[in-house]
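Aim 2, interim progress: modelling of the adenosine-5'-diphosphate-bound target.
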Amino acid sequence: MAGYLDRIGAGKVLLDKGPLSYDWIPPHLIGRDVELSDMASLFSQIENHDTSCRAVILGPVGSGKTVLTQRFGEDIQRHLDGRRKIVLAHVNCRNHPTGSQVLQQIALTLDSRHPERGFSTGEIIQTIRRNLHTHESHLLLILDEVDVLVRRDSSDLIYKLLRIDEGQEHTGSISLILVSQDHTLLKYFEPAVISRLGQSNIIELQPYDADTLTGIAGQRAGVACRTGAVSDETLSKIGRFSADVGDARMAIELLDAAIRRAEKAGRGDVLPEDVRPSTLRKASLEPAQVDNLSIHQKLVLLGICRRLKKTNEISSGDAQKLYQLVCEEFAFKPRSYTTFWKHLKALEIEGLIETKTANASAGRGRTQHITMTNTAPATLESRIEKELLRG
Ligand SMILES: Nc1ncnc2c1ncn2[C@@H]1O[C@H](COP(=O)(O)OP(=O)(O)O)[C@@H](O)[C@H]1O
Ligand SMILES: [Mg+2]
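Predicted structure of the complex, ligand included:
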């Protein structure tokens, strides 16, 4: 009877879905040691009760800006335990895009009963200040996606927060971390704000490379899944697939989708072929995407397309033979096996083809089966042929 329900709660791969959420804060960050120590040096005086520190964090989507501030905030709070009391407030300005909404969020962090309305900006800032001094606390304020606030509401609030202690007896009320994916953020600020923020307090995060993305996927798989359920090969495919954008979110999404495919198939192991091009990227490809390939990548792809018009799958060995034939036809000298293999991997990363390892691999040892699900082989074939014939 109800056998189809057996799958519910079976979890052949998954132990805990939590770490696959974007909101899960990892116990340590992969590949961000340098940036974390840069943060630590900007905050080296934070233990001192009169001191406020500042940092600006810039980087593209998925480079770990938000999680870096969260990890740093929690770590420093714990590190200073018993020496200086740190209160964390993380406000995402995309969700609270006006100065008064941001202030309201800060006030609510300090006092959950803070009334919704009825105070001016100046009054709320003084309330915040008083609250901090009464509790002998220091506020570490993270304004995430701050460009949204600044574009909409000017940098007035930031200027006021930077001056919160001016003319006061006690200093060191607030430390500020500004976060943005907009590299030109500072152009929105008045010189007075820039000089208070400090030009040298900027930390730039670069997009992640394939190895780091593999590590990020591996960290989450290690906590979310049964031991050994996700192979190293699967993880490095996830790393390669997400490396062209360098976005950690894509690596996590690919892992999540791959686990779901394996679970759906009733398997206990997540295989490389469970990793498919991300839906974050365009679901189906524009034929124009082949125009940017190198000439030999096009020749490799042309051979593959010709066969995949007729069959669903082609082995890498056959793909190489077809590549040699295509080279002959269009009078190019075929490249070495290693280069051919590199081109194959590049086409895979572009999402033009998919590969999976053959079960019994004969000969070369790493025979792969190539398929195309994102686009029609015939369309690509005629596009590449036309270009080659034009010369
Ligand atoms: N270095 C890292 N180590 C582990 N997880 C990371 C790392 N960088 C990013 N992540 C994870 O990737 C996702 C996207 O990171 P996030 O901080 O939101 O990026 P951003 O704010 O730059 O867009 C989050 O779920 C985050 O936990
Ligand atoms: Mg973010």
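Residues 22, 26, 29-32, 59, 61-67, 216, 219, 248-249, 252 surround adenosine-5'-diphosphate (ligand 1) (CB under 6 Å). The chain has three domains: 3-19+208-274, 33-204, 287-390.
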